[in-house]
Every structure is written in C-alpha cells, then in structure tokens.
C-alpha cells in the first residue's frame, strides 16, 4: 500500500515543474520570452496588425485616386498615327445616269458646257471680226462597240500616312469640379475607416490581454486547490500509515487530488490559447514566446468611480457615426453633381496633323502637308429621356435611407453604452461582495485546515470550505475581468483614441 501511494503521489507531482512557469513574473536566466505590458502590446499591434496596415494602404489608394481625378483639369495630350493602303481606289462619276441612257440633260458635263458657252461665243465673234472663218472642234466619233460605258475617275493615292497631336481640356464643367470635391470626401472617409480599424485593434488587444490575465488568475486558483490537495493527501497518508485515518479518508484524499488535476490542465491550456489569441491580434509570429506582465488584481484599483458620469456620454467621436456623416455629405455632393449635369459645358481642343499621299512607297519623295485647328465645344443638355432627373431622385432616396440608418445606429450605440455602464456597475458591486466572501472563506478554510490537522474535522469539511474559497476567488477575478472588458468596449464605442486615452 505504501509503495502504491508513493507512486501515485510521484505521478501527480510530475506536472508541477511545468506549471511553475506560470507562477509570478520571474524568469530563469537565458529565457527569451518577451514580457509585454498592455501599452507595449497596443503599440506593437498598431504597427504590425494586418487590418491596420490594410487601412493605411486604403488611405494611400484614395489619395492617389484624388490626385488622378485632379488630372482631368489639365490638358489631355495624345499623339496618333495612321497608315492606309488603298487596295482598290475610289472612283468618281461626273456624268449622270440620263447620259448613259442617251439623254442630253443634267450631269456635270452639262453644267460645264453651260459655263463654257459665253467663252465660246466670244471666241466666235473674234473670228468673225477678223474675217477668219471659225471652225468649231467636233470630236471624232467613237465606235459604240469600243465604248466601255465607264467614265469614272479614280481618286487618291495608294499610300496614305497621317501623323497628328491632339490636346483637349475643360474650361467650364461644374459636374467635373464637384466630382473633384467628392474625391476629397472619399479620402476623409478612408482616414476615418483607418481610425476605426485602430480603435477596433486597440479594443481587441485589450480584450485578449485581459483574457490572458483572467486565464492566469484562474490557473492560480486551481493550482492553489491542487497544492492544498497534495498537502491533504500527504497528511492523510501519514495518518493512515499510523492507523489514525481510515481507508475511506485515504480514498477521499486520493480522489480530491485526482479531481484537482484536470482543472489545472484546463487552466494551463486556456493560458496558451489566450496567448495565441493575443499574438494573432498583435500580428506577431505565433511561435514567438510572449507573456504578459502584471495580474488582473492590478486593475482592481481603477474600478471605482461615479458610474453616472458616463450615463450621457457623447458620441461625437464615435467612428461609425462619423463615417455615416461623411457618407451623407458625399451623397449630398453627389446630388449636386447630378444636378450640375443640366448646366452647359465648354471645352477647348486643338489638333495638329501631318498628311501625305503617294502611289510609290518611297518615304524620301513623300510631300507632307500640315494642318491644324482650334475648336471650342459648347455642349448644352436639352433632353435625356429623364435620366438625369431620375438619377437625382434615386440619390435623394438613398440619402433618406442613410438618415434613417444613422438614427437607428445612434440608438443602438446608446443602448450599448448603457449596457457597458451597467456591466461595469455590476462588476464593481460583485467585486466588493466577492472580496468580502474571499476573506471569510480564507478564514473558514484556515480554521478547517487546522482542525483537520489535529483530527477534529474530516476531509469532507475541509473540501467544502475549500470549494467555497475557490468559487469566491473565481468570482472576484471574474468581476475584475468583466469590468475591464466592458470598459474597453465603452472606450471603443465613444471613439477614444489610444493617444487621447493616455
């Protein structure tokens, strides 16, 4: 029996060396574990967290978009070139269809003959004045079989090359000017979203940090239960060996010690999980050895203040409401931009071209002909089938929806503030009650422990008092944890920046 009991005790004491690493903040020499305070964890998260980095990149993206939008105010210069090879040249007909059918009326030929008649009669009169007979020119008759019936003339050359430069810029465009202001609003919205990301990161780091402290407090409580169980087992074993304790007492001591082991293992695992969560929020390598400084009890002294001071907390710094206000301003600007579509626009454009044609592909013999023009374009909108009108109405409905959404969001935020304040108030009251319960339970356990040592009380009485002490300690730690978590949530809702909080 003694050999069995000794082996049982040695097996149970094996994890003690590993559990000792969570006792206190002292580290052995050569330990590379990074011990962080809450401020250190927040600073690392604000520089390494992925969501914060993405938010900062989004700001840069919108700034580039804004600069690109301002480029529409400057002249847009483009160069162009074109080469055209005529496989079959275009033909032009100067006669009319009636001429081809034998008719004598109409067509380019009749027009030219009518224009040449005054010259013809003038020359004929000159010949008559000099007495020289005038013999008009009569073209030789053409054999009908030799006529092709095609009097078309080919136009242009085989090779055509055009080189040109065009430049254009708006002079009066109210819609464009309003869109540039809209680009600036988008940058402001991106900045506010980045601030919201930082607020969320700070809140997440605090919650993860407090989670580690809560896991450590839980571990301390269950480890104390385990150590008491070990002492009770040793005492019961020594009494059993001298036949002052029954076999029932020995079995109870063994079962109490065995029952304490799973709670310690679960608490130890909770510490590892909470540390992984903290490292994930901070954005550091999960394999990096990290630990937190301090205890949950360090935050208990900051719990008590007048809770009614925050009952009417202002929401002017709340990031969600600020973003909704920015979106409302952007919709209002979008409505003005859509209404500006009714206003005429004036633009200026200029082009300069070089043009050449040749039947031979010899660039040295090409003759280039320049041409240029300056154009003012006035665009006056008259009718668009109601597109502009309905676009304005659609955006106005969207603005009304956003106003209702903002009202509901503000209502939900105020409910959240009251919930946080109520939780903090309950946590303060629970902490006071738990503190008194711990004092009473510690005194009761001390009395029961001394009575058990002298044999005036049973192990069952001692275990009952220890259970009460364990529950009181856990309730005390839970009260502090609930308070700091609710406080972190309240700070995020109110939009307190980390720098402002300091």
Question: Would you give an account of this structure?
Answer:
This protein has 502 residues and is an alpha+beta fold. The chain has helices at residues 2-13, 16-19, 38-48, 50-70, 97-100, 107-129, 174-241, 247-282, 319-339, 387-453, 459-494, 498-501, and strands at 34-36, 76-85, 90-92, 153-155, 159-172, 290-292, 345-358, 369-379. Helix 3 crosses helix 7 and helix 4 runs antiparallel to helix 7. It is elongated and about 175 Å long.
Keywords:
two-stranded parallel ribbon; 4-stranded antiparallel beta sheet; 502 residues; alpha+beta; 12 helices
Order of helices and strands: HHEHHEEHHEEHHEHEEHHH
CA-atom Rg in angstroms: 48 Å
**Count the helices. How many?**
12
Structural class: alpha+beta
Q: Which regions contain 5 or more consecutive residues with pLDDT less than 50? A: 99-105, 145-149
- Hey, roughly how much beta strand do the residues contain? 5-15%
| Principal-axes shape call | elongated
**Residue share in helix:** 55-70%
Quick one: biggest sheet? 4 strands, antiparallel
Give the overall average pLDDT: 82
- Strands of the largest sheet, in order across it? 2-5-7-8
How many strands in all?
8
Distance between the termini: 63 Å
In short, what is this structure?
It is built from twelve helices and eight strands. The protein is α+β, with helices and mostly antiparallel strands and 502 residues long. About 2% of the residues have low confidence.
SSE diagram, text form:
Elements: H1 2-13, H2 16-19, E1 34-36, H3 38-48, H4 50-70, E2 76-85, E3 90-92, H5 97-100, H6 107-129, E4 153-155, E5 159-172, H7 174-241, H8 247-282, E6 290-292, H9 319-339, E7 345-358, E8 369-379, H10 387-453, H11 459-494, H12 498-501
Parallel strand pairs: 1-6
Antiparallel strand pairs: 2-5, 3-4, 5-7, 7-8
Helix pairs in contact: 1-7, 3-7, 4-7, 7-8, 7-9, 7-11, 9-10, 10-11
């Amino acid at each position: 029996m003694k050999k069995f009991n000794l082996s049982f005790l040695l097996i149970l004491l094996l994890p003690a060396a590993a559990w000792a690493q969570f006792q206190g903040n002292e580290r052995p020499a050569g330990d590379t574990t990074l011990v962080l305070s809450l401020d250190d964890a927040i600073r690392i998260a604000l520089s390494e967290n992925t969501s914060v980095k993405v938010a900062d990149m989004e700001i840069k993206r919108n700034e580039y978009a804004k600069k690109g939008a301002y480029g529409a105010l400057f002249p847009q210069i483009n160069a162009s070139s074109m080469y055209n090879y005529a496989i079959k040249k275009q033909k032009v007909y100067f006669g009319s269809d009636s001429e081809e059918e034998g008719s004598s009326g109409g067509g380019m030929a009749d027009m030219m003959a009518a224009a040449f008649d005054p010259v013809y009669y003038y020359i004929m009169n000159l010949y008559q004045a000099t007495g020289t007979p005038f013999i008009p020119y009569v073209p030789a008759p053409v054999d009908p079989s030799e006529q092709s019936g095609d009097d078309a003339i080919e136009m242009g050359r085989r090779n055509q090359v055009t080189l040109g430069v065009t430049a254009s810029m708006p002079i009066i465009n109210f819609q464009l000017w309003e869109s540039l202001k809209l680009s600036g609003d988008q940058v402001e919205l991106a900045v506010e979203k980045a601030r919201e990301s930082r607020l969320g990161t700070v809140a997440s780091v605090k919650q993860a940090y407090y989670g580690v402290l809560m896991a450590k407090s839980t571990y301390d409580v269950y480890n104390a239960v385990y150590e008491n169980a070990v002492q009770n087992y040793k005492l019961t074993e020594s009494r059993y060996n001298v036949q002052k304790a029954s076999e029932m007492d020995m079995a109870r001591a063994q079962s109490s010690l065995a029952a304490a082991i799973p709670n310690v293992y679960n608490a130890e695992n909770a510490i590892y999980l909470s540390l992984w969560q903290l490292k994930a929020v901070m954005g550091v390598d999960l394999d990096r050895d990290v630990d937190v400084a301090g205890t949950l009890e360090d935050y208990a002294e900051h719990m008590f203040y007048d809770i009614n001071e925050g009952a009417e907390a202002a929401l002017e710094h709340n990031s969600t409401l600020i973003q909704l206000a920015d979106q409302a301003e952007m919709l209002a600007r979008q409505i003005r931009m859509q209404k500006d579509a009714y206003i005429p626009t004036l633009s200026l454009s200029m082009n300069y071209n070089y043009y050449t044609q040749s039947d031979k592909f010899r660039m040295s013999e090409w003759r280039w002909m320049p041409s240029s023009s300056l154009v003012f374009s006035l665009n006056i909108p008259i009718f668009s089938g109601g597109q502009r009108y309905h676009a304005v109405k659609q955006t106005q409905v969207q603005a009304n929806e956003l106003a209702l959404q903002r009202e509901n969001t503000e209502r939900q935020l105020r409910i959240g503030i009251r919930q946080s304040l109520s939780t903090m108030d309950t946590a303060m009251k629970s902490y006071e009650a738990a503190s008194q319960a711990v004092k009473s339970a510690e005194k009761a356990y001390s009395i029961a422990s001394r009575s058990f040592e002298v044999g005036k009380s049973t192990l069952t009485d001692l275990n009952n008092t220890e259970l009460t002490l364990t529950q009181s300690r856990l309730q005390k730690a839970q009260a502090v944890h609930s308070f700091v978590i609710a406080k972190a949530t309240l700070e995020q809702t109110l939009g307190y920046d980390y720098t402002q909080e300091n």
